[in-house]
Amino acid sequence: MGAGHTHALYRHGHSPVHALPPQTKIAAALGFVVIVVSTPRAAVWAFPLYAVLLAVTAGIARVPAGFLLKRLLIEVPFVAFAVLMPFVAQGERVQVLGLSLSVSGLWGAWNVLAKGTLGVAASVLLAATTDLRALLLGLERLRLPPLLVQIASFMIRYGDVITDEMRRMRIARESRGFEAKGVRHWGVLAKSAGALFIRSYERGERVHLAMVSRGYSGTMPVIDEVVASRAQWSYALALPCTSLVVCLLGWTL
């Protein structure tokens, strides 16, 4: 898979969760999210239990609460959408603090906030304990189509390259006195976007030629064989299995 590539979400550590093979953590996080989404929204008591399970997992992984909470800010747009739902949804209305709110909208907002927050928290926890290179290896071990893994790998590796190219172009514009202040400057920004596309395309061609000259034939070599034992699978799947019990109780009670 090539050299490693760190990211802002990853937190280096030596916890039992960090030591698990990546494919087990990916399967556990995906299973947890599916179970949370499958839980009936009326089982309000179940979602705090899910949060406790995630908190316990974060404690075992030695990931601070502040680290997780800071990165949960990515769901702010979904929170804004959920806040609007009680005001715009149709159906039965109820008065809350002098405001007329839709009952179905309130349930919908709760559903989005509870399940969305838990899903994002599980994803952040997965990223915090697994670096990008290990994630790609884990996806490969889970038999994800190799082409998709390669695309993800290239996106990760060259995303920073394109970002750096954008930064250099911005510095070049500013050094020539350009400062975007209104609609009349959109033309310059559009030309910059076109130039960035052309440069990215040309760089991609050069990278592909360099890979072919080094023996690339359509598949990436796997350097590490990450094999998970039964004990490691059992340890990783403890989270989704416990969550499944909570989900079943939510449907039956």
DSSP strand count: 2
Computed CA radius of gyration, to the nearest angstrom: 23 Å
**Continuous helix count:** 11
Poorly predicted regions are: none
User: Can you tell me the number of structural domains?
Assistant: 2
- Cα shape: flat
Strand content: under 5%
Q: What is the ordering of alpha helices and beta strands?
A: HHHHHEEHHHHHH
Distance between the termini: 48 Å
Main sheet strand line-up:
1-2
Q: Tell me, rounded to a whole number, the average pLDDT.
A: 86
Content-based structural category: mainly alpha
State the major sheet: 2 strands, antiparallel
Describe this structure as you would to a colleague.
With 253 residues, the chain is mainly alpha-helical. The protein folds into 2 domains: 16-139 and 227-252, no CATH class; 145-213. 69% of the residues lie in helices and 3% in strands. It is built from 11 helices and 2 strands, in the order H-H-H-H-H-E-E-H-H-H-H-H-H. The protein has helices at 16-19, 22-38, 46-61, 65-71, 76-88, 103-129, 132-141, 146-175, 186-213, 230-236, 238-252, and strands at residues 93-96, 99-102. It is flat.
